[in-house]
């Protein structure tokens, strides 16, 4: 049997989460002599198909036809990289923060947060006894839906601490400039909404929760400038003075503050009030001038219709073909049905699982452009060639 890699040689803080103290995986794996358990999780995440699809999922702007505008893939890379820097200086577990950072948005729907809201509404309309929120759905993705190449079943079988960090990563409340890990036990399978998520159980999870905000605040400004939505001179001067004039300066300022404040305040992960308040002000400014501006909202109605029409059509198709096992010749000639049939078999749904749940899971994993491809296959007439 392999001897586990000894993390204590690297992560020396008394607050560091070590693999040796992990609550483990649902299914035990043989230890690896060269990788920590959390490093193995990094690799399981980046090699899964759900991670690859992030390159074509919206961060802020739908399907940007510009390589310099951020997608969900770049965002998670930014978060994991910045989180690792913070963890290194606090002598916490760099592998754990990287794994959480890379996986924290695996539950996102096509068309970004707007798609998330649409699927949440659809879930209620379809009578499913659950809301659709990307944090909770992220846990479902890594536990049940994500695929590793040619593995016999779906799901990534990640460690408890990574799973907890992913489901507990949302830090949009701004109630406090500091975070402390949740004390006590969590039954991750019982989490149903953001209220029951609570804070992460590890300091590493707290780092990702804060860095997530830091990573998108300035980046979204840069993307809006590239897209022609705003002029850099429109950003309030007090925010520029406090944080910096571009994304690099903003991230640098906030990460230094996060490291220095957390070093001085042992047992806490946080920003000073002098930097937390302008970060909060910048994000609120972004909401008013970027996220909800007329040009950003322009295509939301179309994105809503696309997801609604595809969802209810696929539910109907599953019902009338007994989940694609009978009468499939009556369906349009479309590759989406082959993909969906393989998906159903791989995940292993039971007869008790509603068709609406299957389609919700299926659509939530789609990229923006695959939604449009599927709509074209299912609804647009094709000529005989």
Automatic annotation (TrEMBL):
SMART domains: HDc. GO terms for molecular function: dGTPase activity. Residues 72-217 form the HD domain. CDD domains: HDc. Keywords: Hydrolase. One of its GO terms (biological process) is dGTP catabolic process. SUPFAM superfamilies: HD-domain/PDEase-like (SSF109604). This is Metal-dependent phosphohydrolase, HD sub domain. It comes from Geotalea uraniireducens (strain Rf4). The lineage of its organism: Bacteria, Pseudomonadati, Thermodesulfobacteriota, Desulfuromonadia, Geobacterales.
